[in-house]
Amino acid sequence: MTTTLTIDFVSDVSCPWCVIGLRGLEQALDLLQGEVEADIRFQPFELNPGMAREGENIGEHIQRKYGSSPEKSADLREMIRSRAAALGFVMAMGPDSRIYNTFDAHRLLHWAGLQDLDRQRALKHALFALYFTDAGNPADRDALIEAAGRVGLDRDQAASILDSDAYAEAVREAELLWQRQGISSVPAVVVDGRYLISGGQPPEAFEKALRSIAAEKAAS
């Protein structure tokens, strides 16, 4: 018998560990086919809500925010690049990369989720690729419209949303909701509103956790 779970994936499109976490989760679900199915809903979290639209050099940002040296930052980028590559994702970040404001990206993701969860997931993947693989700007209107159109969402409607404040209040309310529930770092994978799996876990860790949760749910 297949057990269906609801998964809230709380994350930011500029978070490299969120890429690793999503890939790990999806690969775990592939391994659990026939045992576990999941409806994945993407929830907003901004790592840098005060970031200017033009962004900031990522090395300078990390040094200022975390006190990390350029050498430590380079080592971390290489470790993240390797972890992502093992999961089939190209992470092309470097010392000259920039970090941007992601609020508009979250507004589009919210809109996509109201239409179809599969389209929302496709948009999430497109935004990850835009930023991490193609060195694009997830705060740029045209780049966001292109990403939306590429996954089958209506470009004109996407433009209309970005040219207004549509879904701004809904995104802020969702961010506050998850913060009030204790989410202070991402990715945070919340299963059935009860179980928390934190961080960019490998597929094996997600597989074990989801199988245990599904078994508990089936027995209840």
Order of helices and strands: EHEEHHEHHHHHEEH
Oligomer: single chain
Number of domains: 1
Task: Quickly give the CATH architecture.
Answer: 3-Layer(aba) Sandwich
| Cα Rg | 17 Å
Sheet/helix structural class: alpha+beta
Distance between the termini: 14 Å
Give the % helix.
Answer: 40-55%
Discrete helix count = 9
SS elements, strand count:
6
What's the shape? globular
SSE layout and pairing:
Layout: E1 3-11, H1 16-31, E2 36-44, E3 56-57, H2 58-66, H3 70-86, E4 98-99, H4 103-115, H5 117-133, H6 141-150, H7 155-162, H8 168-180, E5 188-191, E6 195-198, H9 203-219
Parallel strand pairs: 1-2
Antiparallel strand pairs: 1-5, 3-4, 5-6
Helix pairs in contact: 1-9, 4-5, 5-6, 6-7
Please give a handful of descriptors for the protein shown.
globular, 220 residues, Glutaredoxin, 55% helix, two-stranded antiparallel ribbon, four-stranded mixed sheet, alpha+beta
Describe the 3D structure:
The chain is built from nine helices and six strands, in the order E-H-E-E-H-H-E-H-H-H-H-H-E-E-H. The protein is of the alpha+beta class. Strands 2-1-5-6 form a four-stranded mixed β-sheet. A two-stranded antiparallel ribbon has the order 3-4. Strand 1, helix 1 and strand 2 form a beta-alpha-beta unit. The protein is globular and about 50 Å long. The model has no long low-confidence stretch (mean pLDDT 95).
